[in-house]
UniProtKB/TrEMBL annotation:
The protein's annotated pathway: Nucleotide-sugar biosynthesis; UDP-N-acetyl-alpha-D-glucosamine biosynthesis; UDP-N-acetyl-alpha-D-glucosamine from N-acetyl-alpha-D-glucosamine 1-phosphate: step 1/1
Keywords: Nucleotidyltransferase, Transferase
Xref: Pfam families: UDPGP
SUPFAM superfamilies, per database record: Nucleotide-diphospho-sugar transferases
PANTHER family: LD24639P (PTHR11952:SF2), UDP- GLUCOSE PYROPHOSPHORYLASE (PTHR11952)
GO molecular function per UniProt: UDP-N-acetylglucosamine diphosphorylase activity
Coiled-coil annotated residue ranges, if any: none
Protein name: UDP-N-acetylglucosamine diphosphorylase
EC number: 2.7.7.23
The family this protein is said to belong to: Belongs to the UDPGP type 1 family.
Organism whose genome encodes this protein: Forsythia ovata
Protein origin, superkingdom: Eukaryota
Catalysed reaction, written as an equation: N-acetyl-alpha-D-glucosamine 1-phosphate + UTP + H(+) = UDP-N-acetyl-alpha-D-glucosamine + diphosphate
Length: 317
């Protein structure tokens, strides 16, 4: 996924949304994986189970693959082991205009574009990664969009919910922010039918105006074929900060995502007994807590209690 709508030709995961640390989306996600691994390792050491590192599969496109690989190599995989990160390419499809005509890249070649996030299924199969997962003993897959600055990668709470429900698939959902928000919604087709996603462009106007609906963070075209599905509603301000449009747009910008991260982390610091000072209104700023310090606000008391932090800043080890 390239960040063209953000005014960048780099893969979107390489984008820096302007946090005090200057970290890219990829680095934030890598460090959340490191944090979950650390928490899991501590839990395992208290019991008798064996800890296995999380394996990270990153889907690229033919247009972003080389740049993504080089970005990870130049940053030494952000502290992860190189052999626990696997890159694979999604497929492409011909570009077609609204009137049904092929769009030509040259007079003799049809232009192509990535086949969408639904292409992950065929890409995993064609890349032989299903066999790779079986060899590694992978039992559960957590799929997410790279452009969510607040995504909880490998969220143990969500995984526990999924396992407890005993379903084949599950998805995190948030409620629509406003009636006209251009997002799909989870629906049941027919009484007791399977869950599926209806895109905003396909919704009946009377349904589109409702806000008491769950909005998917990821589009799962395979959901209707799953024998059972569970939806897990989360708070938007804690887990959903999409980065889709340039600063200056009305929504889903690097600036809006940055503020969501800083405000959430400011609440963590205050809850842990810390204090904040600021020279601009606090609603326009906040503090950044390194994922290496805390995954969801836990274990911050030793760092924050009784201390004062001047926003904006990063709190790290």
């Amino acid at each position: 996924m390239a960040g063209t709508r953000l005014g960048s030709s780099d893969p979107k995961g390489c984008f820096n949304i302007g946090l005090p640390s200057g970290k890219s989306l990829f680095q934030l996600q890598a460090e959340r994986i490191l944090c979950v691994q650390s928490l899991a390792s501590q839990s395992v050491n208290e019991g008798s189970a064996r800890f296995t590192p999380i394996h990270w599969y990153i889907m690229t496109s033919p247009f972003t693959d080389e740049l993504t690989r080089k970005f990870f190599e130049s940053h030494k995989y952000f502290g992860l082991e190189a052999d626990q990160v696997t890159f694979f390419q999604q497929g492409t499809i011909p570009c077609v205009s609204k009137d049904g005509r092929f769009i030509m890249e040259t007079p003799y070649r049809v232009a192509k574009s990535p086949d969408g996030n639904g292409g992950v299924y065929s890409a995993l199969k064609s890349s032989k990664l299903l066999e790779d997962m079986a060899m590694r003993g992978v039992k559960y897959l957590d799929c997410y969009g790279v452009d969510n600055a607040l995504v909880r990668v490998a969220d143990p709470t969500f995984l526990g919910y999924f396992i407890d429900k005993g379903v084949a698939t599950a998805a995190k959902v948030v409620r629509k922010a406003y009636p006209q928000e251009k997002v799909g919604v989870f629906v049941r087709r027919g009484k007791g039918g399977p869950h599926s996603v209806v895109e905003y462009s396909e919704l009946d106007p009377s349904l589109a105006s409702e806000i008491n609906q769950a909005t998917e963070q990821f589009i799962f075209d395979a959901f209707p074929y799953a024998p059972s599905t569970a939806l897990f509603e989360v708070l938007r301000e804690e887990e959903f900060a999409p980065v889709k449009n340039n600063n200056g747009s009305n929504f889903d910008t690097p600036e809006s995502a940055r503020l969501l991260v800083l405000r959430l982390h400011a609440r963590w610091v205050v809850a842990a007994g810390g204090f904040l000072t600021h020279t601009v209104p606090l609603y326009a700023t906040g503090v950044e807590v390194s994922p290496l310090c805390s995954y969801t606000g836990e274990n911050l008391e030793a760092i924050c209690r009784g201390r004062t932090f001047h926003a904006p800043c990063e709190i790290s080890f």
